[in-house]
From TrEMBL:
Top-rank taxon: Eukaryota
Keyword Cell membrane listed: no
Ion transport as UniProt keyword: no
Stretches that traverse the bilayer: none
Origin species: Sinocyclocheilus anshuiensis
Protein name in UniProt: Oxysterol-binding protein
Length: 866
């Protein structure tokens, strides 16, 4: 390997901790969740982050001159990185690859972090030393630049190819068909070849606005050119040939260089005209006395006087011509402007099409490169919206807009809030940093930092085994039971693939996703309060736990319940739940499942939803708030609240955290959800056992079969594994250490045509149902009575949009009134308090069911929210 190559190896060996969630069966550290990592994160400064912006791309750069462009070693870079940047982090095995040039790259020099977001995969890396950080950033940047220039070349080649192939079609250009005279050579700025090709290209999708605009532009430009030529011929009178011109110019210069004293002071100072000025003078002066032209050359005084008093005979004609040229120029300008707009739209459309799967599968590598050009521009926008990430509990309203030099500002609390996922990342790094020398001598030069992780093969085997066992296990039948509730929605979901999310996000830079008002077509007819209730779909697992004497087995059921809440995400990535307004409530009484649930939006800034459910077997409560982090293509949602469950028979109080939910490819139709990180379940009433669940981050290089994997262990007081279980959060959980091998949980089958109904499960379909007998019992704040959500459910999209604006406006007004009075909104059914760890939590205050069961909401004062 050449010296460059070995330095790369060395660099690789030192680039630690490609972010990962370990796949092995290792024991959890019994420290309290992510607190140590959090404090470390909180020290990171927002202004230390920078999004590596697109390098200036010179469309004409060739492979050779790229070497000159201050980018030493580009060719070697190419060899080293090939088209993709390979990530190797386990004993020399190639584990993954991503196209660095298409990823959004953010760096933090101070912390030596490099993040690459390729939409499907999000890598967080940390260099061990500043030198290595520098080497890596330089290499990655150089590679990105190289790729972009390469793409630019392909783009040029593509255009050229188009121009050659459409020479014929150009002959029949619309302009000629319309009989426009086309005089002389084209204007340099309007290359008819390119124009013809572009319009030919665009015309394949007739009727195409771009083609029309361009045609009009071309016609106007030709008209303009005709006028200019007329002006020229008028001015020259077709009497001057090139030789004459030369002679005139040089003589003029001769005279000008030695101006007569008197005449040189005409403007009060001696004025030596430049060659260009001389030309201008000539063109004007010879208008004055065309009879002299070619035989005598006017002197400065002549010139000046002719400027002052142009002969009447020609002035009106030339004036008219000038006016025509002026108005035609204005027209051309306007046309070009609209053409530009049309092209911008066209580009967006192309980009959307590009995102569609079929195109991905069928296009050639060349087109691929061409599209990456469009991506270049998209990325500079990404840079600007990168800051869309924000902590929901930000006291500031806004995130800062990214600076022109693309410095990306992340709020520090994003880090301080980071869940296990980030915590693990840091732990992994630390581990690596300590591991040092032995790893450096490792042949691959890289380590995955998970020294205690199970070998890949064993892990793969285990997950295959779980999957096979799961597929054999029958689904629980409770979903098929007739509940007497509706089994479908009143209307199918709207197609929202046309909604340009990019524009929405771009126009809302600095706002939390939950605060961005989106078109109704992006919403699903449930709100977040209802979405939280959906986590109780498999409450039967809690019932089982409450009837399981063995505390370790009990824990297995609690763990399965914690995982089951994520299952619905599999089909729910196209729409966004409604954001509840402050004071909005939602109740859900399920006699069939034996629980009743109440939730309330208790805070608006930051948005916090609190909920509580009770049954004969358990109590369940949580307050959910989350922070978003936008990485350029993916959006990570980091919930911060804890989930609580108490079991009536054993007095257990389980508490656990939630993992990160990542919306991959958030801006495109390839959007999908992934959950990753670690959940630690503790029983606050007993230390007999704890449980650690790992939501395995998908490996890009893995087949789809490895997606959504979950593994867990129940550990005794001395950290011995008592039970192991695993599976997939969308397919089920299997435990092979229980007395009989058992499928502990399997999601209910989806209802018929679920994709035309927002991907809802049967349970979700039942959420917003409003029956006549229920209506009078609900408080007016109940989500079921929210008019915009109801309209959406009925498929009335336009009306929903209007109503949604009204509801949101009303909320703003209420807030203003409160602020004026210096008052604060006080939630009705939940109170804020501190838990044992000193964390702020929202607990049910017991009043909701009291009112409902006694006086009824019609007899008490309620908020009027809509
Ligand atoms: C722009 C739109 C159309 C994209 C779709 C965004 C959807 C997928 C997002 C918006 C809000 C998100 C939810 C916000 C909060 C939580 C609570 C957390 O504990 C689990 C994930 C969950 C439930 C998220 C799932 C994904 C979600 C529903």
């Amino acid at each position: 390997m050449d010296s460059h190559g070995s330095s790369l190896d060395h660099a690789q060996s030192q680039l630690s901790g490609v972010e990962k969630v370990s796949c092995g069966w290792h024991k959890p550290t019994h420290s309290r969740s992510s607190s140590t990592a959090s404090s470390r994160h909180s020290r990171l400064n927002i202004k230390d982050w920078e999004v590596m912006d697109d390098f200036p791309v010179d469309l004409n750069l060739t492979g050779e001159n790229m070497q000159d462009a201050n980018t030493p070693g580009i060719c070697e870079e190419k060899n080293m990185f090939h088209v993709i940047f390979s990530l190797i982090f386990s004993k020399g095995k190639m584990h993954g690859a991503l196209d660095v040039s298409l990823a959004v790259m953010s760096v933090n020099k101070k912390a030596r972090h490099i993040d690459l977001d390729a939409g499907d995969i999000l890598y967080h890396m940390k260099a061990k030393t500043p030198d290595l950080y520098y080497i890596w950033v330089t290499k990655l940047s150089a590679h990105r630049m190289h790729k972009k220039n390469e793409a630019a070349q392909v783009h040029n080649g593509f255009l050229q190819a188009l121009s050659q192939s459409s020479n014929l079609s150009h002959k029949n250009s619309p302009m000629q068909e319309m009989g426009t005279s086309y005089v002389g050579e084209p204007l340099p700025c309007v290359n008819p070849a390119v124009n013809g090709k572009v319009s030919a290209w665009l015309q394949t999708q007739e009727p195409d606005i771009c083609a029309q605009e361009l045609t009009r532009c071309q016609i106007e430009l030709n008209e303009l050119q005709r006028l200019v030529q007329k002006l020229h011929s008028l001015e020259s009178g077709q009497m001057i040939n090139n030789g004459d011109l030369q002679r005139i110019i040089s003589m003029q210069n001769l005279l000008l260089d030695k101006p007569k004293k008197k005449s040189g002071k005409i403007w009060g100072h001696s004025h030596t005209l430049s060659r260009a000025e001389a030309l201008g003078m000539l063109s004007s002066s010879h208008l004055t006395s065309s009879a002299h032209l070619g035989t005598s050359v006017p002197s400065i005084p002549d010139y000046v006087s002719t400027q002052a008093t142009p002969p009447a005979s020609t002035s009106s004609e030339s004036k008219k011509l000038h006016q025509d040229i002026c108005s035609m120029s204005l027209k051309v300008h306007a046309s070009l402007r609209t053409a530009h707009e049309a092209l911008a739209q066209e580009r967006q459309r192309l980009q959307d099409t590009w995102s569609s799967r079929e195109l991905h599968q069928t296009t050639s590598a060349q087109i691929n490169n061409l599209c990456s050009l469009a991506e270049l521009d998209v990325k500079s926008r990404h840079t600007k919206i990168h800051k869309l990430s924000v902590s929901s509990d930000s006291s500031e309203e806004s995130f800062r807009t990214v600076l022109q030099r693309k410095v990306c500002l992340f709020l520090p609390r994003i880090y301080s809030s980071c869940s296990h996922f980030r915590a693990e990342y840091f732990d992994a790094c630390d581990e690596l940093m300590c591991a040092s020398s032995s790893e450096m001598s490792d042949e691959s030069g890289l380590s995955d930092g998970s020294s205690n992780s199970e070998p890949d093969e064993a892990h793969a085997m285990a997950s295959r085994k779980y999957r096979a066992s799961l597929s054999k296990a029958p689904a629980k039948l409770n979903s098929i039971k007739n509940t007497g509730r509706r089994t479908t929605l009143p209307a199918v979901c709207p197609d929202n693939s046309h909604v340009g999310l990019m524009t929405i996000l771009y126009n809302n830079i600095g706002k939390d996703l939950s605060r961005v008002s989106m078109p109704a077509a992006l919403n699903e007819p449930v709100c977040l309060l209802q979405r939280l209730c959906e986590e109780l779909e498999y409450s039967d697992l809690l019932d089982t736990a409450n009837h399981t004497d063995d505390p370790y087995q009990r824990m297995v059921y609690i763990a399965a319940f914690a995982i089951s809440g994520y299952a619905t995400a599999q089909y729910r990535n196209r729409y966004k739940p409604f954001n509840p307004v402050l004071g909005e409530t939602f109740e859900c009484i399920r006699e069939d499942r034996g629980f009743r649930y109440i939730s309330e939006q208790v805070s608006h800034h930051p948005p916090i939803s609190a909920c509580h459910a009770e049954s004969n077997n358990f109590n369940f409560w949580q307050d959910q708030r989350w922070k978003n982090k936008f990485w350029g293509k993916s959006l990570e949602i980091m919930p911060t609240g804890m989930v609580n469950v108490t079991l009536k028979n054993y007095g257990d109080h389980y508490e656990w955290n939630k993992v990160v939910t990542c919306i991959h490819n958030v801006l495109s139709q390839q959007r999908y959800l992934e959950h990753y990180g670690e959940v630690i379940i503790r029983n606050l009433k007993s230390s007999v056992c704890t449980c650690k669940i790992t939501f395995v981050k998908s490996r890009y290089w893995g087949s789809d079969g490895s997606k959504n994997e979950v593994q867990g262990q129940v550990l005794d007081e001395t950290d011995n594994i008592v039970h192991r279980f695993g599976g997939f959060w969308h397919e089920g959980i299997f435990c092979d250490t229980l007395p009989n091998l058992q499928c502990i949980w399997k999601p209910n089958p989806q209802p018929k045509n679920y994709m035309t109904y927002y991907g809802f499960s049967s349970f979700a379909m039942e959420m917003n149902e409003l029956t006549p007998d229920l209506k009078p019992l609900l408080p007016p704040t109940d989500t079921r009575l929210r008019p915009d959500q109801r309209l959406l459910e009925e498929g009335k999209i336009e009306e929903t949009d209007k109503k949604k604006d009204e509801v949101e406006e009303k909320q703003r007004e209420r807030r203003k009134i409160l602020a004026k009075r210096g008052e604060e909104h006080i939630p009705r059914f939940f109170r804020k308090t501190l838990d044992a760890a000193g964390k702020e939590v929202w607990l049910y205050n017991g009043t909701y069911w009291k009112i409902r069961d006694n006086a009824g909401f019609v007899n008490v004062k309620n908020l009027e929210l809509w």
